[in-house]
Write a structure and sequence with these properties.
This protein is α/β, with parallel strands linked by helices and 583 residues long. Helices cover 39% and strands 16% of the residues. The chain binds adenosine-5'-diphosphate, ligand TPW and magnesium ion.
Length: 583
């Protein structure tokens, strides 16, 4: 093992042909490598331990995690950042189930990912005879994945991997499950014959050109707008057509709102960015162009009071243009007058060639009204940020993070929590595309350390993670992984002693379900594995800790002590809390 040549299962020569034999393990590795999939996020055990070892020996990067969920989230975000499916590798039943959350997450968020799990003997599983880690994994994965495949014979590994890749990245990206039973790995084949069964996927995510009439319909509608607005979603960030999107925004002069993971597609400080006037532009806009953003709960389903509707289900009167690769997305919540189906690169290019001939800037009243709101809100925020209360609150801590991110625009920003999420999203500006990765479509807790690891591995940049103390707990053990691989990650735990805040009291005398151990020292956890721990009780200490982390690139955890009364229940989405609905 360890030579540069492709590995073979045994050194045994085939007596007839002098040729060498290969095996299932090797063919999986060769198929991934052939398609440029060279990083595996996983956790070893029967039957895939040797797959991890031999993948490493074959030059793949194998990152070994402490829990499959974190490996899975890492793979999913690697998919988002690279447009190639992120590979997560797990053992059977329990390992598979631990990875499954991330597979579903990838599908829901439209991230390309392949979950590869070893599985038990088919004939025993199907007769339910009680095999080691018995489970019908393929059946369980199917409803949560964009596609699911099983390979039974070594000669089909090439096809299996090719189908998984195409399913993950073509059209609307998503999570794909690939089931590899234990028996497959030990199957042997003549190397030369086996090589011919592998497939290098040609054009895995073909361009999808929008119909010219759809482009015209959309632009005709946009031209009628008195108060146009463009909303950029994480699909637009995924597409990696940053300069085209910038040309569209600047060429039309239309104000835009970035969804959280589209922040930085243009710098948040851009004069057309309407983030600071969000609650003004949504109800006021008359024509809204959605680019890679769904009208789901994050956009209040395109209706209701957020959009100027009279009650919570009423349409606000906007006309929508929706640019999306999925032909089924339009009309999911409200009428879309101009769907433009295609890949965002092709759609935006088509718009650009149409508007080359000239585009009238939006009415000055619209732009100045937005600017007025922005200026007022920015001034209000500046006042809040300038305060220096003791203990620190979210604002005074995030004011530091905002400065540090401004000074390090290439750093990746990972963000999860409730208040820790909402305040960071609104306070910390992002300057470059795909620099902010967060809880995504589900508002899921637990993506933190997996995202940090993948972000560091994929981009090689400094990673800054702003984590609620509850959020951090979901993946906290992976600080060992960060230390083991020596990744440049600086975690800031916004420690307010609990979920939303640390002040809840259980009137029966027990412990409130939202409250944790008071004054916990998360920084000590990092020190346990050789990383740097910092306890920060003031903005100055936080700043010093972050600057040192960035200078040293050492894994660092800063326990930022936040006023336990500072948060609000559910952060910004209190309205979704059923007890709030009751009132
Ligand atoms: P956000 O949460 O930022 O609003 P969503 O995840 O709701 O974004 O929406 C992303 C949308 O982008 C999905 O509907 C998906 O189909 C679409 N999408 C993803 N990649 C592309 C692409 N390359 N071209 C066009 N649409 C895309
Ligand atoms: C997998 C429900 C939403 S936000 C949150 C939970 C448990 C934690 C909020 O506390 P945190 O942030 O992180 O300390 P802060 O700043 O407000 O104090 N399980 C999963 N996902 C979600 N979203 C939840 C539970 C939840
Ligand atoms: Mg908290």
């Amino acid at each position: 093992m360890g030579t540069a040549e492709p590995q073979v299962a045994t050194e045994a020569q085939n007596p007839d042909s002098q040729s060498q034999v290969t095996d299932g393990f090797q063919l999986v590795i060769d198929a991934l490598k052939l398609n440029g999939l060279t990083t595996i996020y996983g956790l070893p055990g029967i039957p895939i331990t040797d797959l991890t070892r031999r993948a490493q020996a074959a030059g793949l990067r194998v990152l070994s995690f402490r829990h499959e969920q974190n490996a899975g989230y890492a793979a999913s975000i690697a998919g988002f950042l690279t447009q190639k499916p992120g590979i997560c590798l797990t053992v059977s039943a329990p390992g598979f189930l631990n990875g499954l959350n991330a597979l579903a997450h990838a599908t829901v968020n439209c991230f390309p990912m392949i979950l590869i799990s070893g599985s038990s003997e088919r004939e025993i599983v199907d007769l339910q005879q009680g095999d080691y880690e018995e489970m019908d994994q393929l059946a369980i994965a199917k409803p949560l994945a964009k596609a699911a495949f099983r390979v039974l014979n070594a000669e089909d590994i090439g096809v299996g991997v090719a189908r998984a890749i195409r399913a993950a990245v073509s059209g609307r990206p998503g999570g794909v499950y690939l089931d590899l039973p234990a028996k497959l790995f030990a199957q042997t084949m003549d190397s030369a014959v086996a090589k011919n069964t592998l497939i290098k996927v040609v054009d895995p995510a073909p361009r999808q050109i929008p119909a010219p009439e759809a482009v015209k319909r959309a632009l005709d509608l946009l031209r009628t707008a008195k108060k146009p607005l463009i909303i950029l979603g994480k699909g637009a960030a995924y597409a990696q057509v940053d300069s085209e999107i910038r040309s569209l925004i600047e060429g039309t002069g239309i104000p835009y709102l970035p969804m959280s993971m589209a922040k930085g597609l243009l710098p948040d400080t851009h004069e057309q960015c309407a983030s600071a006037a969000r609650s003004y532009v949504l109800p006021q806009a008359d024509v809204v162009m959605l680019i890679g953003a769904r009208l789901n709960w994050l956009l209040s389903h395109g209706k209701g009071k957020t959009w100027g509707g009279k009650s919570h289900k009423d349409w606000g009167g906007q006309k929508f243009i929706q640019v999306d690769i999925s032909p089924q997305e339009a009309d999911s919540n409200v009428r879309v007058d101009a769907p433009v189906v295609g890949d965002i690169g092709s759609c935006v290019s088509a718009f650009l060639s149409e508007i080359k001939s000239g585009w009238a800037k939006p009415p000055a009243e619209w732009l100045s009204a937005i600017n007025e709101k922005k200026t007022a809100n920015v001034a209000k925020m500046a006042e809040t940020l300038a305060k220096n209360p003791s203990p620190m609150n979210f604002h005074s801590a995030l004011n530091v993070v905002r400065d540090i991110v401004r000074a390090n625009p290439d750093a990746m920003l990972v963000n999860e929590g409730a208040n820790a999420l909402d305040f960071t999203r609104s306070i910390v500006d992002v300057y470059k595309p795909r620099k902010r990765i967060d809880v995504g479509t589900w508002g899921i807790m637990g993506i933190g350390m997996g995202y940090c690891i993948a972000a560091a591995v994929v981009t090689k940049q400094q990673v800054i993670a702003i984590e609620g103390d509850s959020a951090f707990g979901f993946s906290g053990m992976e600080v060992e992984t960060l230390c083991r691989y020596g990744l440049p990650v600086c975690i800031i735990v916004m420690n307010n002693n609990g979920i939303y805040k640390g002040t809840d009291i259980d009137t029966t005398g027990g412990l409130a379900p939202t409250v944790f151990v008071k004054n916990a020292r998360y920084d000590k956890l990092m020190e346990a594995f050789g990383g740097v721990g910092v306890n920060a009780t003031t903005p100055a200490e936080l700043r010093k800790g972050m600057e040192e982390a960035i200078r040293s690139r050492k894994p660092t955890l800063i326990n930022a002590v936040i006023d336990e009364a500072a948060g609000t229940e559910s952060g910004r989405i209190t309205s979704l809390n059923p007890s709030a609905k009751k009132k």
